[in-house]
Amino acid sequence: MKRAGIFLFFDPQGLVDDYIVECLTSLREYLDEILVVSNSPLDDTARERLLTGATEGLRARKTPASMWADTATASPASAGTASARSTS
Fold first, then answer.
1. Distance between CA atoms of 3 and 75, rounded to whole angstroms?
2. Are the beta carbons of 40 and 60 closer than 8 angstroms?
3. Strand 82-85 relative to strand 56-60: parallel, antiparallel, unpaired?
4. How far, in Å, CA of 35 to CA of 81, rounded?
5. HSE (CB half, 13 Å, CA atoms) of 10?
6. pTM for the whole structure
7. pLDDT tens by residue, 18-77
8. Contact 36, 66 (CB under 8 A)
9. Are 19 and 50 in contact (CB under 8 A)?
10. Band of the pLDDT at 17, cuts 50, 70, 90?
């Protein structure tokens, strides 16, 4: 049986801590595919750290009411849009 997982990531400074990398790497034992969705500003180093254990990444575009980053102004009808970015 193939299994896939979605890992949502947000850090206001775009920092990917060691425990995030460890979590993603350990999930690879149980999941065939891991999609990382980030709503953070990521530099190349942070992006590479996130994709260490993932099979694909997706960067959500920052909008005023994007996803869960700004819950004070977010509404269900105005969820953020996303653009795919393949890691292969």
1. 31
2. no
3. antiparallel
4. 16
5. 12
6. 0.64
7. 999 999 999 989 999 988 888 888 889 998 898 887 877 777 765 544 455 544 443 344
8. no
9. no
10. very high
